[in-house]
Amino acid sequence: QVRLVESGGGVVQPGRSLRLSCAASGFTFSTFAMHWVRQAPGKGLEWVAVIAYDGNNQLYTDSVKGRFTVSRDNSKNTVYLQMNGLRVEDTALYYCARDAKQGWDNWGQGTLVTVSS
Amino acid sequence: EIVMTQSPAALSASPGERVTLACRASQSVRTNLAWYQQKPGRAPRLLIYGASTRAAGIPSRFSGRGSGTEFTLTISSLQSEDCALYYCQQYHKSWTFGQGTKVEIK
């Protein structure tokens, strides 16, 4: 079955960096675009970034442009989110999700990022 | 950015009751609209895509309607396990979510 497992979250000071990973299994990873989406504590869902199936195109929400970079390694069935210049407002549970072209049909369990001094 | 607005913010209904959640887009998204259910401590789950198509394994009591800017999600007979937050999402231009509707059981 499809499985997405995020890792790499933690507590970090403002301005520092963190890299999240999302390991995929149970499907042909290299044929799906992948998204990162976040949810601040007690808040709603916010799309963060997407990477095309082949890694050749990426898009970002405005608030993370220039700070976050999404990448993937199809040989390792893994998508990454490099987060630099972290801000307090980046504190959230970060999910990866598979893009089924009509909706996101599989999500990981999330990894928590806390930015605090 | 396409802004998605959901109403009501919360509702409470009795088991077996029919409930309808609304979602409005700030501009037309055609039928590029999905609904997700999120239970506490869990990841969201895809319920509906293409505004009206149930995702795999979703019970038939869930149905979606609409196109353009106005959409609804209906639960025909509310069950206790349907207590959750429900989000609409447009994927017509980029991706944006509504703020969610919390469904509770009386």
Largest sheet of chain A: 7 strands, mixed
Shape of chain B: globular
- Biggest interface and residues each: A-B, 17 and 24 residues
Helix content of chain A: under 10%
The structural class of chain A is mainly beta
Assembly state: heterodimer
Instruction: From the alpha carbons, calculate the radius of gyration of chain A and give it in angstroms.
Output: 13 Å
What is the 3D shape of chain A? globular
Order of helices and strands of chain A: EEEEEEEEEEE
The value of Rg of chain B in angstroms is 13 Å
Distance between the termini of chain A: 40 Å
Largest sheet of chain B at a glance?
7 strands, mixed
Structural class of chain B: mainly beta
Q: Secondary-structure map with pairings?
A:
The complex is a heterodimer of chains A (117) and B (106).
Chain A: E1 3-7, E2 10-12, E3 18-25, E4 34-39, E5 45-51, E6 58-60, E7 68-73, E8 78-83, E9 92-99, E10 104-107, E11 111-115
Chain B: E1 4-7, E2 10-13, E3 19-25, E4 33-38, E5 45-49, E6 53-54, E7 62-67, E8 70-75, E9 84-90, E10 96-97, E11 101-105
Parallel strand pairs in B: 2-11
Antiparallel strand pairs in B: 1-3, 3-8, 4-5, 4-9, 5-6, 7-8, 9-10, 9-11
Quick overview of this protein structure:
With 117 residues, chain A is mostly beta strands. Chain A has strands at 3-7, 10-12, 18-25, 34-39, 45-51, 58-60, 68-73, 78-83, 92-99, 104-107, 111-115.
Task: Please tell me about this protein's structure.
In chain A, 0% of the residues lie in helices and 52% in strands. Chain A has strands at residues 3-7, 10-12, 18-25, 34-39, 45-51, 58-60, 68-73, 78-83, 92-99, 104-107, 111-115. In chain A, the strands form 2 sheets. In chain A, strands 2, 4, 5, 6, 9, 10 and 11 form a 7-stranded mixed β-sheet that branches. Chain A has a 4-stranded antiparallel β-sheet with strand order 1-3-8-7, with no helix packed on it. The model of chain A has no long low-confidence stretch (mean pLDDT 97). By secondary structure, chain B is mainly β. In chain B, the strands form 2 sheets. In chain B, strands 2, 4, 5, 6, 9, 10 and 11 form a 7-stranded mixed β-sheet that branches. The mean pLDDT of chain B is 97. At the A-B interface, β5 and β10 of A face β4, β5 and β10 of B.
